[in-house]
TrEMBL record:
Signal peptide start and end residues: none
The protein's name in its UniProt record: Spermidine/putrescine ABC transporter ATP-binding protein
Organism of derivation: Heyndrickxia shackletonii
GO MF terms, alphabetically ordered: ATP binding; ATP hydrolysis activity
This protein's record includes keyword Cell membrane: no
Transmembrane segments: none
Record-linked InterPro entries: AAA+_ATPase, ABC_transporter-like_ATP-bd, P-loop_NTPase
C-alpha cells in the first residue's frame, strides 16, 4: 500500500554514477527527508520514483507496480525545475492541473492560494521566484496522491514564509495515507516534519535514521547527525 521500493537501483549519466546500487523501502504514513550535498543524487532519486528517468540497473516499485511514466497518476511531484508555461495565469495553471489529475482537489487549491496569498490573475512570467515557488507548492499539495515528492520545496522562499509553510504543510499532508519524501538543504527548518532521514553522497546511501530516536536517545539534531555522517565520509562542511 503506497509503498515505494528501490531494489539495487543504479543510475549513470555517461560514465558517472548518480546513484549506486541503492535499496530502500519508503513506507506509507511517513515523511522522509532526503539530505545530501549538491550533486549527490537527490533529484535523480525523485525523478526515478516519478517515472521521468529510468534506472540503468535495478527496479523501482510504487504500490507494487513497476514504475513507468504512467505512475504520475499516483505520484505528485514538486520539481526543482521551472516547467511552467509563461503566458498562463495562476488560475489557468490550477485549472490545467485539475484536468490532468483526477485526484486534484479544487477546494484544497483554493485554500492554499488564499493561505499563500497568491494572485490568481497574475501571469506566470510576472511572478517573482518566491511566488513561483508558492504556486508549485499549491499544485503539488492540492493533489490527493498516495505519494508526494517535494524537491527543494523552499527554494526562493524568504525565511519567514518558510517557517509558516513548514507549519501549514502539516495540515495539507495526509499522515495516515501518504508517503512523503522531501529533498532539501534546509535541514533545520524541515526537521519538525520528518520521521526518517536519509543521507546520500556521491550516489551512495550512507545513512538512514529515525528522527525521534535521534533526538530522544542520542540527543542530537538532524543537522548534527548529517554533519557527522558527512565528516565520516570525508565531506567537510556539508558540501562537496
Ligand atoms: N541529465 C543529466 N545529464 C548528465 N548528468 C546529470 C543529469 N542529471 C544529473 N546529472 C548528474 O548526476 C549527479 C546527481 O545529480 P542530482 O541532480 O540528482 O543531485 P542533487 O543531489 O539533487 O543535487 P542538488 O542539491 O544540487 O540539487 C550529478 O553529478 C549531476 O551532474
Amino acid at each position: 500500500m503506497n509503498m515505494i521500493e528501490l531494489r539495487n537501483v543504479s543510475k549513470k549519466y555517461g560514465r558517472d554514477f548518480s546513484l549506486k546500487d541503492v535499496s530502500i523501502t519508503f513506507k506509507p504514513g511517513k515523511i522522509y527527508g532526503l539530505l545530501g550535498p549538491n550533486g549527490s543524487g537527490k533529484s535523480t532519486t525523485l525523478k526515478m520514483i516519478s517515472g521521468l528517468v529510468y534506472p540503468n540497473k535495478g527496479e523501482i516499485f510504487v504500490d507494487g507496480e513497476l514504475v513507468n511514466r504512467k505512475i504520475s497518476r499516483k505520484v505528485a511531484y514538486l520539481t526543482e525545475l521551472d516547467m511552467f508555461y509563461d503566458p498562463f495565469t495562476v488560475q489557468h495553471m490550477i485549472d490545467f492541473y485539475a484536468t490532468q489529475f483526477p485526484d486534484f482537489e479544487m477546494e484544497k487549491a483554493n485554500t492554499l492560494v488564499n493561505d499563500l496569498k497568491l494572485d490568481r490573475s497574475k501571469k506566470i512570467k510576472q511572478l517573482s521566484k518566491g511566488n513561483r515557488g508558492r504556486l508549485k507548492l499549491v499544485l503539488a499539495l492540492s493533489r490527493n496522491a498516495p505519494i508526494l515528492l517535494l524537491d527543494e520545496p523552499f527554494s526562493g522562499l524568504d525565511p519567514m514564509v518558510r517557517e509558516s509553510i513548514v507549519k501549514s504543510l502539516l495540515s495539507y499532508i495526509d499522515f495516515e495515507e501518504q508517503t512523503v519524501i522531501i529533498a532539501t538543504h534546509e535541514i533545520d527548518e524541515i526537521e519538525p516534519l520528518l520521521d526518517e532521514v536519509l543521507a546520500i553522497f556521491n550516489g551512495n546511501l550512507i545513512g538512514i535514521q529515525n528522527v525521534e530516536t535521534l533526538r530522544e536517545e542520542k540527543g542530537v539534531s538532524v543537522l548534527q547527525w548529517f554533519k557527522k555522517i558527512m565528516e565520516e565520509n570525508g565531506v567537510y562542511g556539508g558540501e562537496k
